[in-house]
Design a protein that fits this description.
With 322 residues, the chain is an alpha+beta fold. Helix content is 16%, strand content 39%. The strands form 7 sheets. Strands 13-22-20-16-17-21 form a 6-stranded mixed sheet, covered by helices on one side.
Length: 322
């Protein structure tokens, strides 16, 4: 079963006696793939939340919402001031969280929680025994993840990818697994339909301007999406009725082009374009357009996969470097 990890912002000034040796050294034995989070508080559940929040910080989850808890530190049983501020993501689902060690000293709980931070493929293989079902998604089955799952199980396990609180998960066999940002990018795949072309350089430099040329050789309603490395999905154009036609985004007469950008501090970025051609006009209203800034509402890769299961598509990965 998965656990819902709700993490809090805890800001307090407390007086601590003498923490246990294992907590002071923070050197409990663990494997290379495990992450240990340490937490302390007067209440056991808050000490556990503090430990979980350290784990969430180490796997670089996004900050979504914060709850403030006031801790009563009026007791005189402590003899050392400690200021502690923890900020991390809210409602992150993590498999395999377990208490490694906990101890109470002078009304203060000290806790260590361990998380097995294995690669996503290994987490899934270690956790499920899926039924053989007819799952043959035209896009997912060509990704590195699903090729590895088929190699292990002998078939593609039925799966759903969805987002919650700005985090992506994959649900397989009634279990949910967090997809880290790096693992999300590994879901990208260059795939080309014979009647849909995306003309774009594979690599661009940061701040380069560029256009995306698309060609659709059969009748349908054409749309173009950009899936960013952070997980957001935006539409560039949508439901344009075309037959044997080309379409360039943005309009060269009105714009200088799109700007290739990488985040501050990063050396490169990988994004993916998806050109879609549907036999009928699909409802694409839930996807934000490229000009909007509603990032919280733009984690729609699961919805895009649904469309790709019904429509013809081509994809193109763009790498942006310094």
């Amino acid at each position: 079963m998965f656990k819902i990890l709700t993490i809090f912002l805890v800001t307090s000034t407390i007086l601590i006696a003498s923490p246990p040796q294992w907590y002071s050294t923070q050197n409990l034995p663990h494997t290379q793939s495990q992450i240990i989070g340490y937490g302390q508080a007067k209440e056991l559940n808050i000490a556990k939340q503090n430990a979980k929040s350290e784990i969430a910080e180490m796997i670089q989850t996004n900050i979504d919402s914060i709850t403030i808890i006031d801790i009563d530190s009026s007791t005189d049983k402590y003899d050392k001031d400690v200021n502690r501020t923890i900020k991390t993501s809210s409602s992150v689902r993590l498999n395999g969280l377990r208490v490694l060690k906990q101890e109470r000293v002078d009304d203060v709980w000290f806790v260590a929680i361990v998380y097995d931070n294995l690669p996503l493929t290994q987490k899934i293989i270690n956790s499920i025994n899926p039924k053989r079902e007819n799952f043959n998604h035209p896009y997912l089955t060509h990704t590195t993840l699903f090729k590895a799952l088929k190699e292990h199980f002998g078939f593609y396990p039925k799966a759903e990818i969805y987002a919650q609180n700005g985090q992506y998960y994959i649900a397989i066999d009634n279990q949910q697994f967090l997809i880290s940002q790096q693992e999300f990018v590994e879901l990208f795949s260059n795939q080309e339909h014979q009647n849909i072309k995306i003309k774009l350089k594979d690599r661009l430099k940061n701040n380069d301007l560029y256009f995306v040329d698309t060609e659709f050789k059969e009748f349908g309603f054409a749309s173009l999406f950009l899936v960013s490395h952070t997980g957001t999905v935006v539409s560039m154009f949508r439901n344009i009725e075309l037959i044997d036609a080309t379409f360039t985004y943005p309009n060269k007469k009105e714009y200088d082009g799109l700007r290739a950008e990488i985040e501050n501090g990063a050396k490169q970025s990988r994004d993916m374009f998806v050109a879609l051609l549907c036999k009928k006009k699909e409802d694409i209203g839930l996807f934000n357009q490229v000009s909007t800034e509603l990032e919280k509402d733009s984690f729609r890769f699961g919805n895009l996969l649904d469309l790709m299961g019904r429509c013809a598509f081509s994809t193109k990965i763009l790498t942006i470097v310094e």
